[in-house]
Amino acid sequence: MATLAALGRAAARASDDAFFLGHLLRLYREVAEIDEDGLAAELGCGREGLVRLALCRAPREGAHFRADLARAAAHAGADLDRLISVVRRAQAADALRAAASAGLLAAARDADERAGER
């Protein structure tokens, strides 16, 4: 069986891939300005539980959302309602970042077009 250290390294890699719940957990930690221990405490699970969560698939939207997170929370020993709140906040932050990035790109494109008109 893999050691916690090896699983931790896998979880760190998973935080860069939106397929994994670890990606949303990392976004939440950034927004909330907390470390892994703080997040583990917030979710009511230990460090090992946080690693287990990070390696779960990110929840699907719609009817599957709650069930996906319920399975992940049970697997990690985390509080489901807190996990849902963390994931929703991370998703909102991700959407805001994407919108801001798109807005910056549009503003840069508009500036280039205005510069070309001169």
Based on the model shown, name its key terms.
globular, 118 residues, 434 Repressor (Amino-terminal Domain), 6 helices
Description:
This protein is mostly helical and 118 residues long. The protein has one domain (4-117): Orthogonal Bundle (434 Repressor (Amino-terminal Domain)), CATH 1.10.260. It is built from six helices and no strands. Helix 1 (4-14) packs across helix 4 (47-54). The longest helix has 38 residues, at 80-117. The mean pLDDT is 86.
Residue stretches low in confidence (pLDDT < 50, at least 5 long) are none
Spatial gap, N to C terminus = 66 Å
Structural class by secondary-structure content: mainly alpha
Question: Would you tell me which CATH topology applies?
Answer: 434 Repressor (Amino-terminal Domain)
Give me the strand/helix succession. Answer: HHHHHH
Give the radius of gyration. Answer: 18 Å
Determine and state the CATH class.
Mainly Alpha
The biggest beta sheet is recorded as: none
Topology at a glance:
Elements: H1 4-14, H2 21-32, H3 36-43, H4 47-54, H5 65-76, H6 80-117
Summarize the structure.
The chain is built from six helices and no strands.
